[in-house]
Amino acid sequence: MGGAVVDEGPTGIKAPDGGWGWAVLFGCFVITGFSYAFPKAVSVFFKELMREFGIGYSDTAWISSILLAMLYGTGPLCSVCVNRFGCRPVMLAGGLLASLGMVAASFCRSIIQLYLTTGVITGLGLALNFQPSLIMLNRYFNKRRPMANGLAAAGSPVFLCTLSPLGQLLQDHYGWRGGFLILGGLLLNCCVCAALMRPLEAPRLGSGPAPQRPSHRLLDLSVFRDRGFVIYAVAASIMVLGLFVPPVFVVSYAKDLGVPDTQAAFLLTVLGFVDIFARPTAGFITGLKKVRPYSVYLFSFSMFFNGFTDLTGSTASDYGGLVVFCIFFGISYGMVGALQFEVLMAIVGTQKFSSAIGLVLLLEAIAVLIGPPSGGKLLDATHVYQYVFVLAGAEVLASSLVLVLGNFFCIRKRPEAAVEEEEHHKPPADMRVDSREVEHFLKAEPEKNGEVVHTPETSV
Prior knowledge:
CATH superfamily: MFS general substrate transporter like domains
Helix content: over 70%
Low-confidence stretches: 1-11, 413-460
Number of strands: 0
Shape: globular
Order of helices and strands: HHHHHHHHHHHHHHHHHH
Oligomer: single chain
Radius of gyration: 22 Å
CATH topology: Growth Hormone, Chain: A
Largest sheet: none
CATH class: Mainly Alpha
Number of helices: 18
Structural class: mainly alpha
Strand content: under 5%
């Protein structure tokens, strides 16, 4: 995921689709891994934190929620920083902040202090790394962009496979304070990744001036006039209410069934291992010529699959059942992760994508703050994990229905006047690209000339 990023750099730069781009891809892989695996990996410390501070499930769940909310909700702030200072300096500062937050958390004496250090400071540091890394990745790749984004997204499950058992190991040997301190040191590797983000230089033609940056508004609120965007934003916000709940509670669920701590933490490793293969596979399938025009329906199916998995996982009564749940959850979760921003780009077009993604993530940040804590409140009240999984599954299922029904009834069946206007404003044939077919299928408003040309800066 990412934020409202509009630092497009000078025009006239051709994406190398390789070369130093592979180093940038590696850096983005590591940053993505830390950004998305960290909120789930810290859940292995929740039991110890509950004993330390005498708090409930909902109180500890706020740590993961604040982390995700900072990652989701700081898009405009990251845009301003990147536009003012550039990608590399912002990422270096973000790496230092992320490390500082975890180191300071190891000295905390209350859960409120943990919210501020682990949640706010570390979350902001990860956000300042994650979003600029996506900008750089997409500057270096154009033709190979789907493959590059798929490989970078695989960093999340890879790191989840390693950080979760590592966190349990650190807790067993050094306690949660020592574990937080060591994890803070590991986050300094974000600074190493920032050093890999070498800016592309525009070619000079003769003695003329270098190409200038294009002028764009920070946030283009006109996207709210697009019915497709509104439907997507509503569906995504509902989805996030339940999407992150099972990974947060599955470890505690297993421990509550009497599963040893090490085996319980291994559940997240199983989930992450399956996710490693699900994301690139889903991206490859979506990129097929005959499949891509129907990507919105494939995305809706992935959400339905995820919600149905949550409902069936609520029936698990032993460790084997939870392992099976994590396998299918990893498949569906990987599909959602691979498709969500490809579908958004197809709906709004590349020119408005940077604003659209920032606005969507701001809305999702609110849902992130509600989802896991509400699950924790339900658990505190009932002491039944099954109810938490049923609630999460119902929310994700509802989001899939909103997207598919909204797309079918409100977007595909457009007024004839809108269709005629689109034909009138259709760009010349030499300005169109293959992905135009996708946007023509999904968008409710007419495109403008040049709006569909894929550039590496506006793709996630």
